[in-house]
Amino acid sequence: MSPLSPSPSSSTSTTTPSRTAEMANSKSLALPDLHFTYRWSYISLYVAFLIFCNVFIPCLLFYLLESLTPITTKELIGISSAALGLSSCFDAPFRLIRLVRHRSEFGPLGSDVWWHLDFVMWTYTFALLVFAFPLAIAPAIAFYNFFLMSTMMLVGPIGVVFLFSLITSYFKYPIPIRCSSEPRGTIMKPAAFYCLEDVAAVDFKHGRAFRKRVHESILVHASFVIFDVPGYAQSPPFRQLMMEETVYWIFMAAVYCGITAAVTWATPLNFAFGWVLGQFFMWIFVSAFGCYFLARRGLARERAWWAARGTDLKLDKEGPGGIEEQRRQEQHARAHRDSRDGDSTVVEHGPTVPRNEKEKEKSNASHESSANNNDLNEKEKQERIENRD
């Protein structure tokens, strides 16, 4: 996978001029291996958790309580509202804790300020705030169908943010705030690019190492000049892929909002309640399949585009971010850990003393004991002489 090239103010490159010249002469563009894995067990558990909290529990409570108890519709919606927001009480705080408390491991590059969160976290927080309005208002004002608009209120703001990123990217407006690993004043890229970096680094737990490999790959791409076209324009197929993915998710968000609104206001509450909650996950699965298809097609198109210009894309296993470099870093860390353990403390029925200090104490004790033995021998000799006399 070859990421998008940033503006010149983005991350620092470790690509040397000699390495760039070598790649240009060989007509082979070597990109760092991103080492991305899907962690399917993690995905399966998380999806099961979301379905359990957002479909199974609300529907079970709503339909059982409606059938077996004399509870009012207002009370039913109030109980369902509390159940529907349950999963957000876990995933959002855990992601925030991972970004704040473990910032050096998962946070965006270029800043260690705790509130400099990534693009996905800020977007998700904004969407959750809007999502909370129908959950809180619908039971209070007896506007029960409005409760079913809650999932639309979650998807809609994300689509708006994606649209904003597309507009600023098209008109090349520099943004006045940090955006994930990019500093202030950077021209914003389509939102799909930031999701690529943030979701893999935080949610899939690949950490800052993944962020560095993504941006290193960008900078290698930018430094490989064929037509004297600067940085960001080096790989038009990849830029097109990021734009297509962003447009695709904007379109799918609009489709979801339209279908949800139609079902909410045109069908009875008993039917709409279960359908809208189940429809949300059906929409996610269909949208994810389309996203995967677009990504595969776009990456194949990029490889063909470079091949048509006499350049082969390959993974650089030796350069920055390559798998060989990762192994060397792991070996270095292991050697450092072993050397640190070698100088670690030794405990022997007393206070903890570093090993080198312990050896010094042992040598001093042996010298003192030998000196004491010599003194005893001298005293014994003097006593024997006195006894003879």
Which secondary-structure class do the elements indicate? mainly alpha
Helix content: 55-70%
Largest sheet: 2 strands, parallel
* Shape, per Cα inertia axes: globular
The parts where pLDDT drops under 50 for at least 5 residues are 1-26, 225-233, 319-323, 344-356
If you average the pLDDT, what whole number results? 76
Number of strands: 4
Region (Disordered): 1-21, 316-389
Transmembrane segments: 43-65, 119-141, 147-171, 247-266, 272-295
Biased composition (Low complexity): 1-18
Keywords: Membrane, Transmembrane, Transmembrane helix
Overview of the molecule:
There is one protein chain. Strand 3 (345-346) and strand 4 (353-354) form a beta hairpin. This protein has two domains: 40-314, no CATH class; 323-361, no CATH class. Mean pLDDT is 76; it is low at 1-26, 225-233, 319-323 and 344-356. Helix 3 packs antiparallel against helix 6 (119-141) and helix 10 (236-266) runs antiparallel to helix 11 (269-308). The N and C termini lie far apart (100 Å). The strands form two sheets. It has a two-stranded parallel sheet with strand order 1-2. 69% of the residues lie in helices and 4% in strands. The chain has 13 helices and four strands.
